[in-house]
Design goal:
Blueprint lengths: L1 H6 L24 E5 L6 H11 L4 E2 L3 E2 L14 E2 L2 H10 L2 E7 L3 E6 H9 L4 E4 L2 H10 L4 E6 L3 H11 L4 H16 L6 E4 L3 H12 L5
This protein binds guanosine-5'-monophosphate (5GP).
The site of guanosine-5'-monophosphate has 15 residues, from strand 5, strand 6 and helix 5.
Length: 213
Amino acid sequence: MSAAWGRTRSPSWSSSLAEPAPTGRPITPARLTVLAGPTAVGKGTVSADIRARYPEIWLSVSATTRPPRPGEIDGVHYLFISPETFADMVARGDFLEHAVVHGRHHYGTPRGPVDACLAQGRPALLEIDLQGARQVRTTMPEARFVFLAPPTWEELVRRLIGRGTEDDEERARRLATAKIEMAAQSEFDHTIVNDDVTRATDELVALISGESG
Ligand code: 5GP
């Protein structure tokens, strides 16, 4: 399948990019997609799958004041910065959106790389929380807003406990946020149920490439 898509690559947005030439099928150019959804639903896994299988889609790297988890690489998974640096960036207007997530750490989308990506005509994906999605909805209403949902609430709780990266207190905090986020699903243009990562990724890429929705 990917070999066939490789033959149909669009040269219009692949030639002027700093990163390695994309190898996938043509994607609708210059379209911003915002992916949100509750904690542990698998946004990070879907993003990693996109990074691996669809390099033609540019993934925004958020800045955060949260400390890195084991295996997380600065500049790849996040830009890990101090609260002081984050505050400086907010003051300079460097963020497209930013929020305190789960009542604890700051997260924000650096504006410059998103603008540069869209100016190059390359599709861009932001994986952010509900507050951030609402901010982008205000400033860039032309973006596409996609909600990643768990098959069931019980499955979401099971995934959060299963990944074992949070203590009891943090888990309770995240589940409280998740309840609020689940209730906001109708604000989004599309919902994708993450019952299978590959299928969910392909559904998202189909939306980005304009094959559906
Ligand atoms: P985690 O700490 O598990 O990596 O992420 C916690 C939450 O922060 C997730 O819901 C994730 O989508 C959200 N998040 C990550 N980056 C950003 C960002 O740049 N802006 C906003 N508003 N939320 C973000």
